[in-house]
Amino acid sequence: MPRQLLRNGQVVTDDWRYLLELEAAGVDTAIVPALIVPLARWTSERDHWAAHPGRLGVVLQPADKVEQLGDVIERFDLIAAEFPGPTDGRGYTQGRLLRERYRFSGELRAAGYVRRDQLFYLARCGFNSFELPDDQLATAMTAFETFSAEYQPSNDEGLRRTLEHR
Hints:
The protein is an alpha/beta fold. It has one domain: Aldolase class I (TIM Barrel). It is built from 6 helices and 10 strands; from the N terminus they run βββαβααββαβαβαββ. The strands form 2 sheets. An 8-stranded mixed sheet has the order 2-1-8-7-6-5-4-3. Strands 9-10 form a two-stranded parallel sheet. It is globular.
C-alpha cells in the first residue's frame, strides 16, 4: 500500500520512493520518477545519481552536514531529515539551515520518528512535509493550531498562517 503523508497541509499519497526500500524489493531505480537517495550514496556515487532522469531527493541522517549540499542543492526537489527517535533534534537545525542559509525552496520532509506533537515546531523550522504513523494522520492538522503567537523569530515556512508577534 502506498505511503500516506502530510504535505502542505493535506494528507496525500506519497509520490516519492526511497532508494533503500526499492533496492530491498529488487525494483529497477532507473524507472522511478521521484527517488530519494541517502546523502552517503549521493556523495559516493554522485555522477550516477546526478544523471537520474526523474526528480531527485536526498535524505540526511542526523550527523550529516547540510554544508555538503551547498553546491548541488538546486539539483534536489526534496530534502528529507531523518529523525531516529524522540530525543534527537538535529533535524530541526538541518531544516532551518536549509531554508535560511541555503534558501532551499523545495519540499522539506521530516521522516522517521515524527509524531503529531512535533509538527508545529517542525513547521516553524521550515518543514512542509511530514511522515507520520497512519493513526495520527487524521488529526495531524490540529497540531498547527497549537499556538497563535510567536515569542521568537523563526522560519515558519511550513505554517499556513501567520502567528501574532509578542
